[in-house]
Design a protein that fits this description.
Number of strands: 0
Largest sheet: none
Radius of gyration: 31 Å
Order of helices and strands: HHHHHHHHHHHHHH
Distance between the termini: 76 Å
Oligomer: single chain
Structural class: mainly alpha
Helix content: 55-70%
Strand content: under 5%
């Protein structure tokens, strides 16, 4: 028989022995490290790599992003740089026949006059009565398009990261749609085709800017008036800003931007009213197409939730 002292000693030994066995079992199972801390789970790639004959599976997206892993933002810069090169190069390749472009422009002017949309000359005449304003709008037309749009995407990337891929892809889809229209329906701008209807080339006559010579010649397709991507981009920025911004003053500024661009493109005789309408439609189709594509892939829920969480 055990006395009381022996019984307590035996129970203490069993408890100590049980802790040792349990600790050994947990270490063998990988639950604790040598210091007793719980380690992070092993990466999935490591598990795949230890399986005989198996290789880690990487998607095409992962492979092309790999060189940019250290600085992910450089991947986005590369996307936009490539898109810009393709877009501008394609515009140069799809320059239509001048006679066709001028015939289509005449058709647009005739249609706008018959439908009551021909207000461009009225807008321009008011601007020409304020020469200083005309000069401001000329430079706004030349440079806002190339500064506001990049700044918008930088803000979106930094502040609304979950919505950013959707807007970026919709933007790229919109530009693809525009290229198709440029190719199938070349149209000369009113500053070239509408002189007899009272249009004035304010860029050249007031600010001495020649879009068809010098450093600007390679960046402008003279027969790509429809759709107006100046207005399309501005509408995109205005609508996305309206949805995502929390401050009402900032939301009003976002909405004012496409209005200012519309006045600019018509007041400087670079686009017709119908060009702006076509630009808006191109943006709408681009966003709807990407929305449908994301819905088909099952990735719409996260974006939809993030879209309505304003910052």
């Amino acid at each position: 028989m055990f006395d009381t002292h022996d019984t307590f000693a035996f129970q203490k030994w069993r408890r100590r022995r049980g802790d040792d066995v349990d600790g050994q079992g947990r270490e063998m199972a990988g639950e604790v490290d040598a210091g007793g801390a719980t380690p992070s789970p092993a990466p999935a790639d490591a598990t795949v790599a230890t399986t005989p004959g198996a290789a880690p599976k990487r998607s095409f997206s992962t492979m092309i992003r790999r060189p940019f892993a250290a600085h992910p933002w450089t991947f986005e810069v590369a996307i936009f740089a490539l898109a810009l090169v393709v877009y501008q190069g394609s515009r140069a390749l799809v320059i239509g026949d001048p006679s066709t472009a001028f015939e289509n422009a005449a058709g647009i002017i005739h249609w706008e006059k018959s439908s009551g949309l021909f207000v461009e000359t009225t807008i321009q005449q008011w601007i020409l009565n304020h020469v200083e304003l005309a000069e401001i709008l000329n430079y706004f037309y030349m440079y806002a398009h190339w500064t506001v749009t990049p700044l918008f995407f930088i803000w979106l990337y930094k502040r609304r990261a979950r919505v950013y891929p959707y807007v970026r892809n919709a933007f790229l889809a919109t530009n693809a749609i525009a290229l198709v229209v440029f190719m199938l329906y070349p149209v000369a701008p009113p500053r070239l085709a509408g002189v007899s209807d009272g249009f004035v080339d304010t860029l050249h006559n007031i600010s001495d800017i020649d879009l068809h010579g010098g450093i600007f010649a390679g960046w402008f397709n003279p027969h790509a008036a429809v759709p107006s991507m100046h207005f399309g981009y501005a509408l995109m920025i205005g609508m996305v800003g309206m949805v995502l911004l929390r401050s009402w003053p900032l939301r009003l500024i976002a909405l004012a931007y496409p209005v200012a661009v519309f006045i600019t493109i018509t007041g400087t005789a670079n686009h017709y009213v119908i060009d702006a309408v076509a630009g808006g439609l191109a943006v709408a189709v681009g966003f709807i197409a990407v929305w449908a594509w994301m819905a088909a892939r099952g990735t719409l829920g996260t974006t939809a939730t993030a879209t309505f969480r304003r910052v």
